[in-house]
From TrEMBL, chain A:
It holds the Pfam family BPD_transp_2. It comes from Marinobacter algicola DG893. GO terms for molecular function: branched-chain amino acid transmembrane transporter activity. It comes from the Bacteria. It is a multi-pass membrane protein. This is Leucine/isoleucine/valine transporter permease subunit. The keyword GTP-binding does not apply. GO terms for cellular component: plasma membrane. The chain crosses the membrane at residues 9-30, 42-61, 90-110, 122-142, 147-164, 170-190, 197-213, 265-283, 314-334, 346-379, 391-407. Residues 5-107 form the High-affinity branched-chain amino acid transport system permease LivHM N-terminal domain.
From TrEMBL, chain B:
The keyword Ion transport does not apply. The keyword Membrane applies. Keywords: Amino-acid transport, Cell inner membrane, Cell membrane, Membrane, Transmembrane, Transmembrane helix, Transport. It is found in: Cell inner membrane. This is Branched-chain amino acid ABC-type transport system, permease component. GO terms for molecular function: L-isoleucine transmembrane transporter activity; L-leucine transmembrane transporter activity; L-phenylalanine transmembrane transporter activity; L-valine transmembrane transporter activity. It is a multi-pass membrane protein. Belongs to the binding-protein-dependent transport system permease family. LivHM subfamily. The chain crosses the membrane at residues 20-38, 45-65, 71-90, 102-121, 152-174, 203-226. InterPro entries: ABC_transp_permease, BCAA_transport_permease. It comes from Marinobacter algicola DG893. GO terms for biological process: D-alanine transmembrane transport; L-alanine transport; L-isoleucine import across plasma membrane.
Length: 423, 307
């Protein structure tokens, strides 16, 4: 047994060296047309060797380590606790939610401008993640091209405002409905496909939309994007220093206060907050409606759901369309916040980030998804010096999550009725 | 005559690209055939193969070695070793622990791995694209001097020849060798093969290693053909190769070869007659159409849904 372990450990250590040394140990540098090779820093090479030694030792003593780990008493204090009673839990959850919303309402008036701007972005991601949560978490349809619907929402607003001078409030429902229409049109043929084929087809669709946006230069401006997207107005009041459109008044003049750029940022944040809350409530309601139950039934067992008389296509299509609708919402807000959009913002990586949020938070769990969206957007901002490692950590976190805790950080708990024991 | 020569040129270009797609597609199709998952990180393994080959080529040049066959063979061997180790490690770390769970879980794990590997190379080697020396230059030309000439470069011939050799070796390996027979048995029925004493874990590892080695060959060839590489170029190539695998019928090795060639030709015809920008649209569109109308692909077997 020991000899077998040694052989295996040696093999693993060698593989570690092979996969890390050539890539990390040599740096390719190109000067003009010639490519030269430089040795990496000593610290990197020491790190690679150290990693190999760690792998070797771990594999060598793996049986002992695992054995002693299992003998340790359960350190998790929550492991054996009784699940909270359902009515209590629901009460606690709604108290928490109310507190969160109150906190979010007060937040823009105490935080700095940059922080409020970032919070708007967080809210946009929350909307996106909640929408994708319907598709992936509830209906179990892996959509890797979700960003396409986000792009449809954003570009709808940008193009309508550029060509027809449509304002934010008109564009918001149009963008969302158009995104939903795209979802419907795409979903109709592809939802017959099995899970992993669906993933690839949606991914292809996302790429097609991005390539089209990039190449239809005379309509979308191609890679240069569209700029000058107007800010939302409050009952015809504009937030700029000067009124741009006739018939409008400006916010600071109406209320007789000094002009401040912060008003606009706060206003946008509040819009995003309201929309995010609407999204969360709407989806929460949908989850308890027959259609929401049907999503979950289909996710759990397609054949059983079908034999109970559910229309597979209609159920899947409704999830897909509703998910796309909220992505369109988020897209319109995003376009208005940035004032400028280009296909750069709608790459596959964005879809992957939103998916990562849903997966990390716990597929199907709204609270988990919201917390994960906050964490995933804010953590990289806090740790600026590690920002280049952001995606590396993302990828690793997705893998580790699937290996150790596929249900996510805050797994979804089904609403259920418990039978009371008879006295 | 002009038009015919132009057409033939596009055909040759398409077949060149297509044969490398076929090499990458083998990895997808074999893995899918055995454990029924899409190895999303396969494109990254191909990209790592290309980087290793470039590192080996530059290293040999720095040592003053200029004999072309030696450079090519060393680069090929290095790329294959690193890529196959990577393939083995990826399966071990990211796929084996989640094997047998719900379908989406291995897929998400694979996407995570793909992002991880992309950024691993990005951090180690920078995000800019790096020139890949064209080691094989020159070619044959056909047609009148003063008008359009069809050309076949030696590079293209090398790609054809290498692909042909790899495919022949693979076919012989799958049909004749012990591991190859075990591979076929496992892909027919994993549980039964296990009962009959086949170490299925080893066979699955072997599948990943074989697929990764072929992807590394494609990495070296395409790196030389395109003349530059960057950490993101594995993603699109992987997607194309997957399309090729689905087109031919996923799980079927001859299907992957056929699918690769068809896809390559379709792409180069689009660039030749429409516009190069839309070639990706055409290949993804093709993928969507095939999945809609013939999900089993050209040479695939229909799948029976069991309850």
């Amino acid at each position: 047994m020991a000899a077998h372990n040694l052989k295996h450990a040696l093999f693993c250590a060698i593989v570690t060296l092979i996969i890390s040394y050539p890539i990390l140990g040599f740096n390719l540098a190109s000067e003009g047309t010639t490519v030269t090779l430089e040795g990496a820093k000593t610290s990197t090479i020491v790190g690679v060797l150290l990693a190999a030694v760690v792998v070797f030792l771990f594999q060598l003593f793996r049986d002992n380590l695992m054995g002693s780990l299992r003998q340790l008493p359960a350190v998790n204090p929550l492991a054996n606790r009784k699940p909270m009673e359902q009515s209590k839990r629901l009460k606690l959850e709604s108290t928490l939610l109310t507190l969160m919303i109150i906190g979010a309402l007060v937040w823009p008036f105490i935080a700095s401008r940059g922080a409020v701007d970032l919070s708007t972005l967080v809210l946009i991601y929350i909307m996106l993640a909640l929408g994708l949560n319907v598709v992936v978490g509830l209906a179990g349809l892996l959509d890797l091209g979700y960003v396409a619907f986000y792009a449809v929402g954003a570009y709808t607003f940008a193009l309508l405002s550029q060509y027809y001078g449509v304002s934010f409030w008109f564009a918001l429902p149009i963008g969302a409905l158009l995104a939903a229409l795209f979802g419907l049109v795409l979903g109709f043929p592809v939802l017959r496909l099995r899970g992993d084929y669906l993933a690839i087809v949606t991914l292809g669709f996302g790429e097609i939309i991005r390539i089209l946006l990039n190449n239809m230069t005379n309509l979308t401006g191609g890679p240069n994007g569209i700029g000058g997207i107007p800010d939302p107005t409050l009952f015809g009041m504009e937030f700029g220093r000067r009124v741009k459109e006739e018939g409008n008044t400006s916010f600071h003049e109406t209320f007789g206060i000094a002009y401040s750029g912060e008003h606009k940022v706060i206003f946008l944040y509040l819009i995003a907050l309201v929309l995010a809350v609407i999204t969360a409530i709407a989806i929460r309601r949908l989850m308890r409606m027959p259609v929401g139950r049907a999503w979950e039934a289909l996710r759990e067992d397609e054949i059983a759901a079908k034999s109970l008389g559910l229309n597979r296509t209609a159920v899947k299509l409704s999830a897909f369309t509703i998910g796309a609708f909220f992505a369109g919402f988020a897209g319109t807000v995003f376009a208005s916040k940035q004032g400028f959009i280009s296909p750069e913002s709608f790459v596959f990586l964005e879809s992957a980030i939103i998916l990562a949020i849903v997966v990390l938070g716990g597929m199907g769990s709204q609270m988990g998804v919201i917390l994960a969206a906050i964490a995933v957007t804010i953590l990289p901002e806090l740790a600026r010096e590690f920002s280049e490692y952001r995606m590396l950590i993302f990828g690793a976190a997705m893998v580790l999550m699937m290996v150790w805790r596929p249900q996510g950080l805050l797994p979804m708990r089904r609403i259920h009725i418990e039978l009371k024991k008879q006295e | 005559m002009q038009d015919l020569l132009y057409f033939i040129q596009q055909l040759i270009n398409g077949l060149t690209i297509g044969s490398t797609y076929a090499l990458i597609a083998i990895g997808y199709t074999m893995v899918y055939g055995i454990i029924g998952m899409i190895n999303f990180a396969h494109g990254e393994i191909y990209m790592i193969g290309a980087y290793t080959a470039l590192i080996a080529i530059t290293g040999l040049a720095a040592l003053g070695i200029a004999w072309l066959p030696l450079i090519l063979i060393v680069a090929l061997v290095c790329a294959m070793i690193v890529s196959s180790s990577m393939g083995w490690a990826v399966e071990r770390v990211a796929y084996r622990p989640v094997r047998g769970k719900h379908r989406l879980i291995p897929l998400i794990s694979a996407i995570g791995m793909s992002i991880f590997l992309q950024n691993y190379v990005h951090l180690a080697q920078g995000s800019r694209n790096i020139g890949f020396p064209a080691l094989i230059e020159g070619g044959f030309r056909f047609g009148a001097e003063d008008s359009f000439q069809t050309s076949i470069t030696y590079m293209q011939i090398t790609i054809f020849a290498t692909t042909l050799v790899c495919m022949t070796i693979l076919s012989l390996f799958i049909s004749r060798s012990r591991i190859g027979r075990a591979c076929r048995a496992v892909s027919q029925d994993l549980g039964m093969a296990n009962l009959l004493g086949i170490d299925t874990n080893r066979i699955i590892s072997a599948t990943f290693v074989i697929g990764a080695a072929l992807a590394a060959v494609a990495g070296l060839l395409l790196g030389m053909y395109y003349g530059s590489i960057d950490p993101l170029f594995g993603f699109i190539a992987g997607l194309k190769a997957f399309t090729a695998a689905v087109l031919g019928g996923i799980g079927s090795i001859p299907g992957a070869m056929l699918g690769g060639l068809i896809l390559g030709v379709a792409e180069s015809m689009t660039s030749g007659y429409l516009s190069g920008e839309y070639k990706d649209v055409v290949s993804f569109g093709l993928l969507i159409l095939i999945l809609l109308f013939k999900p089993t692909g050209l040479l695939g077997k229909p799948e029976v849904e069991k309850i």
